[in-house]
Amino acid sequence: MSMHVLIVNDTTYEIDVDPRTPLLYVLRNDLGIISPKFGCGLSECGACTVLADGRPVRACCVPVGSLASQKIVTVEGLGTPERPHPLQQAFIDEQAAQCGYCIPGMLMSAQALLAQNSSPTDEQVRQALAGNLCGCGTHIRIVKAIQRAAGIMRREEGRP
Fold it and tell me: What is the CATH number of domain 2-77?
């Protein structure tokens, strides 16, 4: 066990854990941040996706000791129920969630994409989500939601 400093959703935490502990367990069990889900435990389904310094990572397989000074963002850091992030609102508007289990990972992968590419094609969206599985099959609605959010975010930034 050793002390680790994590910056999660703009809050700094000091935690005493084995550095090999997967980030997912620290987020859920130690910090009470429950949006990242355990899916496969093999970094293949994307249910546990969070952002580390803006890049999507699989929290089930990333050891907490490898994240020193990186800013971690989960769905809880995107928006609030009162002021949802445009991605969250678009997923609601497009009814992109069915069971909802995959949605936090989808949102985080989409956020990483839109931070790099404000006008992605449908194919670029699909490629960005290739590592995120949805058992309910709402992929078409998810792509539509991400395109809707991209448009909203461009307008908010004053871009066409």
Answer: 3.10.20.30
On whether the CB atoms of residues 93 and 148 are closer than 8 A, the answer is: yes
* Digit-coded pLDDT (tens) for 78-113: 999 999 999 999 999 999 999 999 999 999 999 999
Per DSSP, what are the bridge partners of residue 73? 51
Cα distances (angstroms) measured from residue 45 to each of 41, 91, 108, 133: 8, 19, 13, 5
Please give the Cα distance from 74 to 77 (Å, whole number). 5
Per-domain residue ranges of the chain: 2-77, 86-156
- CA-based angle 29:27:137, to the nearest 5? 105
Which CATH class, in words, describes the domain spanning 86-156?
A: mainly alpha
CA distances from 127 to 1, 31, 100, 132, 143 (A): 38, 31, 20, 10, 11
**Residue 160 pLDDT > 80, yes or no?**
no
Cα separation values, 37 from 18, 100, 119, Å: 21, 10, 28
Dist. CA 158–CA 127, nearest whole Å:
26
So what's the pLDDT on residue 69? 86
Q: Is 56 helix (H, G, I), strand (E, B) or coil?
A: strand
Which tens digits make up the pLDDT trace of 37-83? Answer: 999 999 999 999 999 999 999 999 999 999 988 999 999 999 999 99
